[in-house]
């Protein structure tokens, strides 16, 4: 098992891909496992009267343990890239202040989740990029990739840029910011999963507006936990309607009246998997199919590649 890091830098293949959603899930996931977590959005643009909304969302997931000035030391009004937004106010981006805030948070917490702005090569000053900021904070990066067309190129480019800068990559989390996928997008996503293999460490399924996942979909947070076996079983059947999905693991829940099942099978599966320290979840779209997934912790050297 890898030693626990002091934090991670959540970057994306683009802006609007789901970094904040993934960061919040990660913060909640860690807190549920007893880790004392701090959150940071060091540079936020598009900040209006309501304050830095990403930073506030992260701080809320962390239980608001820190002053907002440390969570978000650099805020700019223009909804543009950080250097552009800073120039519009005649200001510079002072990465020293980011480092000082991060140091305070790192001192207070076991782990700090830092959300970058945009993607890795977004400028973070005259000569620095977001990748440089991750290096200055000595943090490994978690890459959030959206699921739809274009993602293979963006994700591989991001991985290549991270490698060229000697950034430590924890893995890629696939997000669904554009909701349910079309059939071609589903095929495309399969190709992304194949191209990335074990580098995919999690996936946040399409969520209803404003919803937070009520289950954890991280497959293998290697640096955070031991080896995990992940099993996914897919069909291309009729799918499960969204109103049923949150309840299918409930005891005695059957989808249609008159159906023969007693609604205990999935309930028992969930109990067994969780009793062994694993997680079980389902991703489904009506008319497209369903994927059941579960993870189980593997002890010793027996862990093989994630099964798909
Ligand atoms: N799995 C998902 N299902 C449905 N909507 C999602 C999902 N992930 C993200 N979204 C939505 O997509 C939008 C962008 O997500 P988010 O704000 O997390 O992106 P971001 O990468 O943090 O953006 P920014 O670059 O502005 O910080 C939000 O409205 C969010 O609610
Ligand atoms: Mg964000």
Give a quick summary of the entry.
With 308 residues, this protein is an alpha/beta fold. It contains nine helices and eleven strands. Helix 1 runs parallel beside helix 2 (53-61).
Structure characteristics:
single chain; 308 residues; alpha/beta; 6-stranded parallel beta sheet; 9 helices; 21% strand; globular; binds adenosine-5'-triphosphate; binds magnesium ion
Topology:
Elements: E1 7-12, H1 19-32, E2 37-40, E3 43-44, H2 53-61, H3 68-71, E4 74-75, H4 82-88, H5 95-108, E5 111-119, H6 130-136, E6 141-146, H7 151-164, E7 169-175, H8 183-196, E8 200-203, E9 228-235, H9 265-275, E10 279-285, E11 289-297
Parallel strand pairs: 1-5, 1-6, 2-5, 3-4, 6-7, 7-8
Antiparallel strand pairs: 9-11, 10-11
Helix pairs in contact: 1-2
This protein binds adenosine-5'-triphosphate and magnesium ion.
The site of magnesium ion has 4 residues, from helix 1.
Kindly describe this structure.
The chain is of the alpha/beta class. The protein is built from 9 helices and 11 strands. It has helices at 19-32, 53-61, 68-71, 82-88, 95-108, 130-136, 151-164, 183-196, 265-275; strands at 7-12, 37-40, 43-44, 74-75, 111-119, 141-146, 169-175, 200-203, 228-235, 279-285, 289-297. The protein has a 6-stranded parallel sheet, sandwiched between helices. Strands 9-11-10 form a 3-stranded antiparallel sheet. Helix 1 (19-32) packs parallel to helix 2. The longest helix is centred in the first third of the chain and has 14 residues, at 19-32. The two termini are 22 Å apart. 37% of the residues are buried. Mean pLDDT is 85; it is low at 222-226 and 300-308. Adenosine-5'-triphosphate (ATP) binds at residues 12, 15-21, 54, 118, 175-177, 179, 204, 206-207.
């Amino acid at each position: 098992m890898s030693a626990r890091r002091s934090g991670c830098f959540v970057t994306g293949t683009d802006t609007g891909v789901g970094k904040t959603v993934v960061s919040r899930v990660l913060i909640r996931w860690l807190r549920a496992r007893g880790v004392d977590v701090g959150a940071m959005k060091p540079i936020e643009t598009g900040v209006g009267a309501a304050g830095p909304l990403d930073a506030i969302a992260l701080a809320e997931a962390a239980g608001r343990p820190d002053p907002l000035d440390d969570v978000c030391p650099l805020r700019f009004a223009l909804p543009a890239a950080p250097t552009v937004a800073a120039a519009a106010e005649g200001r510079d981006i002072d990465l020293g202040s980011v480092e000082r805030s991060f140091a305070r948070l790192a001192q207070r917490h076991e782990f700090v989740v830092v959300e970058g702005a945009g993607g890795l090569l977004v400028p973070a000053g005259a000569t620095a990029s977001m990748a440089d900021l991750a290096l200055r904070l000595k943090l490994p990066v978690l890459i959030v990739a959206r699921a739809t067309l274009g993602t293979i190129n963006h994700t591989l480019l991001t991985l290549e840029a991270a490698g060229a800068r000697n950034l430590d990559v924890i893995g890629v989390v696939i997000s669904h910011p554009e909701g349910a996928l079309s059939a071609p997008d589903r095929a495309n996503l399969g190709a992304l999963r194949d191209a990335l293999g074990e580098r995919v460490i999690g996936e946040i399924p399409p969520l209803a507006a404003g919803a937070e996942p009520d289950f954890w979909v991280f497959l293998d947070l290697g640096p955070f936990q031991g080896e995990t076996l992940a099993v996914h079983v897919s069909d291309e059947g009729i799918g499960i309607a969204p109103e049923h999905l949150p309840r299918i693991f409930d005891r005695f829940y059957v989808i249609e009246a008159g159906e023969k099942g007693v609604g205990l099978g999935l309930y028992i599966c969930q109990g067994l998997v969780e009793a062994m320290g694993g997680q079980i979840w389902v991703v489904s779209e009506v008319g497209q199919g369903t994927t059941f997934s579960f993870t189980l912790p593997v002890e010793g050297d027996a862990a093989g590649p994630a099964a798909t």
